[in-house]
Amino acid sequence: MKIFLIADYFYPYNPGGTEWSVYELAKAFKKSSIDSTVITLNYGSKQEEIYHGIKIIRLPFFKKLKDKRAVVNPIWQNNLLFFLTSAYYLFKIIKSENPEIIHVHGKFLIPAAIISGFISKKPVIVTIRDKQIICPIGKCFFDQKRFKSCNFWEFLISDFPWFIKNYTNKKPFVIAHIFIGVIWSRFAGEIIKFFAKRAIQITTISNSQKKYLEANGFKNVKVIYNTADFKISKVIIPKIKSVLFVGKLSKGKGVELLLDAAESLLKNNKIKFLFAGQVQSLKIKNRLKQKPLKSSSTLLGSVDYNDLPGIYRKVSVLAMPSIYPESFGRAALESLSNGTPVVVTDVGALSEIVEDKITGRVVPTAMDSLKEAILDVLKNEKQYKKNIAKNYEKLRDKFNTNPIYDYVKLYKEYTK
Q1: Which of 274, 411, 390, 295 is nearest to 339 (CA)?
Q2: Which residues contact 118 (CB under 8 A, 6 or more apart)?
Q3: Do residues 106 and 7 lie in contact, with contact meaning Cβ atoms separated by under 8 Å?
Q4: Which are the contacts of 262, defined by CB distance < 8 A and separation ≥ 6?
Q5: Domain annotation for the chain: domains and CATH numbers
Q6: Which of 43-47, 110-114, 151-155, 400-404 has the lowest mean pLDDT?
Q7: Strand duo 48-51 + 54-59: pairing
Q8: CB proximity list for 340: less than 8 A, separation 6 or greater
């Protein structure tokens, strides 16, 4: 069976977890009866390439990227010209390669996939991996009881000012530029949603994410978890107690909450804090330079995906204290697959990955709760790592064997 996996970004351009989720899926398909090809946009690489045995075909795209961890301004991908030209190029590749299923992972190439799939009479499956298709800012979802996105007026008077305050500087030119971008993204998002709802099947990556999609008009949503590579490794207990954070150092990821807990813990404990990711605000950057964090923390910056397993195995615990409802939480899964326990907050899908007091801790978004959980895992690190080893096959089934089986079953259903 031949499948197209379509992603807005892919190797060597990897700004987030989606790209590596698609990579792990394609890698797992190699072991089954699925012949998958990744279709992505060309930000400055070869038109075709083989990466770790995975075939990549890149669609022509005008805008190029020098920084492989960056993203282009969404305006380049959120417009009618892009929707039509990408549909044209994708249709040509479909005619040439003749896949049986078109499976989209991402947002901006959804219209192209639906249009070219309709013309070529190929079934299109769309996996929605985040909430940006619902709202490009999503400030409203910080309210844990809220699932439906804000209306346009609330988006203007509440979401946009909040975004400027927390995620960018306040220079007038920058504000004007971002304002145009987010307003346009809001309108273009409606177009993308229109096309997404015409897919033969909508899938998503967690039960939490499914609730948000259904509250915003998506129907018949099927949950299939992300996959990870599970390789049994021996239990490693580092000499120095260490806490790792992986992801964007931003408000939504709960970094400020983690810094509060770290400062309190460091008063009476010798702990090393490691941060793998790009700092998203000056406030967070300044805090890392001040005592006691300055001498007890290391900012690793963006770490290559292939180097992360070695880091997971050498630390005591991974902390994911998100205050924004994660659609999944790929770092938590990667940590467990490498035998390291995880402390997460009880928002979004993180509690679907971590089993409280077994493979880690699941706590409220409060500094004292986070602090207590981290200290618990550090003091009982050996036991938590033994728990993960004991539950390893169960984790492998849930996040590798079962998702691949579900996708193969789904593909066969639509190619009868």
Answers
A1: 390
A2: none
A3: yes
A4: 243, 271, 273, 293, 296, 297
A5: 2-223 (3.40.50.2000), 242-397 (3.40.50.2000)
A6: 151-155
A7: antiparallel
A8: 244, 312, 313, 315, 316, 317, 318, 385, 388
- Which residues lie closer than 8 Å to 350 by C-beta, 6 or more apart? 320, 322, 326, 329, 332, 344, 362
- With b for 16 or more beta-carbon neighbours within 10 A and e for fewer, the 78-101 pattern comes to beeebbebbbebbbebbeeeebbb
* Closest-CA residue to 117 (of 106, 108, 126): 126
The residue count of the chain comes to 416
Whole-model pTM? 0.92
310 Cβ contact list (under 8 Å, min separation 6): none
Joined together, the tokens standing for residue 273 give: 């804090």
Q: How many CB atoms lie within 10 A of CB 353?
A: 28
Q: Are 201 and 114 a contacting pair, CB within 8 Å?
A: no
What does the block give as tokens for 69?
Answer: 């961890």
- Residues whose CB is less than 8 angstroms from the CB of residue 68 and which lie 6 or more positions away in sequence, other chains included: 12, 13, 14
What are residue 360's DSSP bridge partners?
Answer: 342, 356
What angle (nearest 5°) sits at the alpha carbon of residue 232, between those of residues 231 and 234? 135
- Which token pair is 379? 């003091």
DSSP letter at 139 equals G
Cβ count near 200 (within 10 Å): 17
C-alpha dihedral, 214 to 7 to 117 to 125, nearest 10°: -40
Angle at 307 between CA 302 and CA 309, to 5 degrees: 115
Instruction: Read off the pLDDT of residues 152-200 as tens digits, 9 standing for 90 and up.
Output: 888 888 888 888 877 776 777 777 877 887 888 888 889 999 999 999 9
Q: What is the edge-to-edge ordering of all strands in the sheet holding 360-363?
A: 297-301, 272-276, 242-246, 317-320, 342-345, 360-363
Beta bridge pairs of residue 320: 344
| Mean pLDDT, residues 305-326 | 94
Buried/exposed code over 1-13 (b: 16+ C-beta within 10 A; e: otherwise) = eebbbbbbbbbeb
Q: Which amino acid is at 397?
A: D
The whole-angstrom separation of Cα 49 and Cα 53 is 9
User: How many Cα atoms are found within 13 Å in the side-chain-facing hemisphere of 376?
Assistant: 20
